[in-house]
Specification:
601 residues, alpha/beta, 9-stranded mixed beta sheet, two-stranded antiparallel sheet, 11 strands, 43% helix
Length: 601
């Protein structure tokens, strides 16, 4: 069959994102149950047994429901219990300094009869994936196999993946309190604070006072329709939350775009162009208030403007013939979309550099504390983005002349420069228009794959390309492949994908500011590297892997492509979980790690 056009694949991503935004909370069954249509975190399904709230009660947001699942696992872990979904010997949590995040670490201890090793082994998985890719089943577990070879093995789940959780989510789970989606608004209402913007002169701590604009509107009257006061409250809370978010992202154009788009949709609710000016005037006043620190005074004025906006819409519907019905429901739906979009921005506000500079160092420090070595170093294996992280880490250390604390690294299907390859990722991500991508704060890959996989796995195989992205023909047991696709993938922030797309530009992957090119400094590294590729890897073809390998000092790097012309062939995941990997790939990795496991005196 012909490959899917890039526009079609981008449409699939957009459709999944829209479904993700519009989904309502659902009840979650056991891990063996069919996948839920909403999947912010791939492991969320195991821990919630409560039914969804009744229609009359306010529903918690989807990401809040799913976040509580990982938080509950963290609470259980602190109490000495390990959730059933975690098939490791131990589940640990490493705090990420300066953040609320606690990343999950799955530990696999070597059995007593295994060879003695000098260094623990850290495993990093690909973008938007959890630990399951390294531990798919008892008979197909990369992590367990490495531990049986004597390596104290740790799988790292980066922020937002699997069982990793935020501190605020953990506190909520431990106290079993249901956080209000408008908690920021509640604080504004209950606390009277002085309006003090940040001082322009950063050398002084003296506050600078300014006048808060005071809104007066003689036409502001209470509406009589029973639905309208509820709409006013709902609109006020949503706009106040947008305003509070906006003040924390002053330099982020996404919030302004979201606000403009919201008011455009509100304007479209009214068929009479004569009232467009009035609606725009109210919208401009609200946008103006968003530039001020959020206080009860600002909230009160947003409330008045919300009342005015609903009043304009209500009166306008009465002045058209025939009268339009259902505008309240349409406005309510528009408000809910705004709330969900805001939550996604707040919940998924990180990029590749956050993984590199915060999560991975936190994991290394924690593993070193738990598994002490004489030289203070680790061995590390990274698959896909996990390998990219390892390349970026040793590159940065090479530039700085710092010790990466790694005895050796293995990268599986990874590169920091895809410019010379025909990678299918060129079709999957909108490389040419980052602004368009930022309109969707997070991409629910789990939802996308769990939705499309049933279509791709049966005739007429319209989307069989999606399967071939992961595994070559006959390289995985169908049940294991289904388990991988339906359970291994999570939601990924658009910021992460946007930074990764720089690997398709001249010079390769760079930091968030575009000032540091990781490939350029790989020639300065002093860490042994084993780089493996799959012959039928559509995501990271061998030529992409070699584009990175060729700049590493030859005495430090080993490169090998797995797969034969007559078969078997290796696609992107097969280096980790293909049926031949245990006999062909694993021995190669173990031999390399063993060579570099010695501790220098």
């Amino acid at each position: 069959m012909p490959p899917l056009h890039g526009a079609s694949l981008r449409l699939l991503l957009a459709g999944a994102a829209v479904a993700h935004l519009s989904s309502s909370p659902i009840a979650y069954a056991s891990p063996c149950a069919p996948p839920a249509p909403l999947r912010l975190r791939a492991f969320a399904s195991y821990s919630s047994s409560e039914p969804p709230p009744p229609p009359s009660s306010p529903s918690p947001s989807p990401s809040r429901v799913l976040a509580s699942a990982a938080a509950a696992a963290a609470c259980d872990c602190e109490k000495g219990a390990k959730p059933a979904i975690c098939t490791a010997d131990e589940l640990h949590y490493a705090p990420v300094p300066g953040t609320e995040w606690r990343i999950a670490l799955w530990r696999y201890r070597p059995p007593p009869e295994a060879p003695k090793r000098n260094h623990p082994l850290m495993l990093l998985s690909g973008v938007a994936t959890n630990a399951m890719g390294f531990d798919l089943s008892p008979g197909a577990s990369f992590a367990r196999h490495m531990s049986m070879q004597g390596f104290d093995t740790w799988i790292v789940e980066l922020r937002g993946a699997g069982l990793s959780t935020r501190g605020s989510e953990l506190a909520a789970a431990s106290t079993k309190s249901d956080l209000s989606p408008n908690s920021g608004v509640d604080e504004i209402l209950t606390k009277k604070v002085n309006v003090v913007p940040p001082a322009k002169d950063m050398s002084t701590n003296e506050p600078q006072s300014f006048e808060v604009p005071v809104l007066t509107d003689k036409n502001m009257v209470e509406t009589n329709t029973s639905e309208e006061p509820q709409l006013v409250t709902k609109l006020t809370n949503a706009l106040a939350r947008l305003s509070a978010t906006f003040s924390g992202y002053v330099n982020d154009g996404r919030l302004r775009n979201i606000a403009d788009s919201f008011f455009d949709r509100v304007t479209e609710l009214h068929p009479d162009d004569s009232l467009t000016t009035s609606i725009e005037e109210v919208a401009d006043k609200i946008l103006g208030l968003m530039e001020f620190p959020q206080t009860s005074a600002i909230y009160d004025q947003i409330s008045q403007l919300s009342q005015r906006l609903v009043k304009i819409l209500g009166e306008g519907q009465q002045n058209v013939s025939p009268r339009l019905f259902g505008w309240q429901e349409r406005l309510s739906a528009t408000i809910e979309d705004l709330q969900k979009q805001l939550e996604l921005i707040i919940s998924y506000d990180w990029d590749f550099d956050h993984y590199l500079e915060e999560d991975v160092p936190a994991a290394i420090d924690y593993i070193k504390q738990q598994s002490v070595t004489k030289d203070g170093k680790l061995l590390a294996i990274g698959h896909s983005m996990g390998g990219i992280l390892l390349y970026a880490m040793v590159s940065k250390c090479g530039f700085e002349g710092a010790d990466p604390e790694l005895a050796a690294i293995v990268t599986l299907a990874s590169s920091v420069d895809y410019t010379t390859s025909n990678s299918s990722l060129k079709l999957l991500v909108p490389l040419a228009d980052p602004a368009e991508m930022l309109r969707v704060p997070a991409i629910p890959l789990g939802t996308l794959l769990s939705t499309t996989y049933p279509i791709s796995s049966r005739a007429p195989y319209i989307l069989s390309l999606l399967r071939s992205q992961i595994s070559a023909k006959d390289m995985m047991d169908p049940e294991l492949l289904s388990k991988l696709i339906l359970n291994n993938f999570c939601t990924v922030p658009a910021k992460v994908l946007l930074q990764l797309t720089t690997a398709f530009r001249d010079g390769g992957l760079r930091n968030r500011t575009g000032t540091f090119f990781f490939k350029e400094h790989l020639r300065k590294i002093n860490v042994p590297v084993l780089a493996l590729a799959g012959d039928e890897d559509l995501i990271c073809p061998p030529e992409a892997v070699y584009e990175t390998v060729k700049v590493i000092p030859q005495h430090l790097v080993s490169y090998k492509v797995f797969g034969k012309p007559e078969g078997p062939h290796y696609a992107h995941y097969d280096l980790v979980g293909g049926r031949k990997a245990v006999h062909e790939v694993y021995p190669c990795i173990i031999e390399f790690l063993s060579q570099h496991d010695e501790v220098s005196s």
